[in-house]
Amino acid sequence: MDTELLFQRIENMIISSTKSPKYISFSSVKMADLFGVKPIEIEREVQKLVEEGRLIKTQHSVLPSYEVYMLPS
Questions:
Q1: Tens digit of each residue's pLDDT, the chain (73 residues)
Q2: Which CATH number goes with the domain that contains 53?
Q3: From its phi and psi, is residue 36 left (phi > 0), alpha (psi between -120 and 50) or beta?
Q4: Which of 28, 29, 34, 64 is least surrounded by Cβ atoms within 10 Å, i.e. has the fewest?
Q5: Taking a C-beta distance cutoff of 8 angstroms, is the pair 59, 65 a contact?
Q6: For position 38, what pLDDT does the model report?
Q7: Following DSSP, what letter does each residue of the chain receive, concatenated?
Q8: Which domain holds residue 36?
Q9: What does the alpha-carbon distance between residue 10 and residue 19 come to, in Å, rounded to a whole number?
């Protein structure tokens, strides 16, 4: 799994988001299908990006409450 390619894909999704502030929520199953890997690999790589500070992970405040990702300021 190429972490940099995954980050670029997520970064582009966030930048093109019409929401304010810009954020995304995505399905690890769909992302895994795009990259041809298992969903657990996507989840693991995204967690690494969060730990490195390249992504911010938070809980959406409006129901349904789900995880959203943003770029650091």
A1: 899 999 999 999 999 998 888 999 999 999 999 999 999 999 999 999 999 999 999 988 777 778 999 999 8
A2: 1.10.10.10
A3: left
A4: 64
A5: yes
A6: 97
A7: --HHHHHHHHHHHHHT--SSS--B---HHHHHHHHTS-HHHHHHHHHHHHHTTSSEEEE-SSSS--EEEE---
A8: 3-70
A9: 15
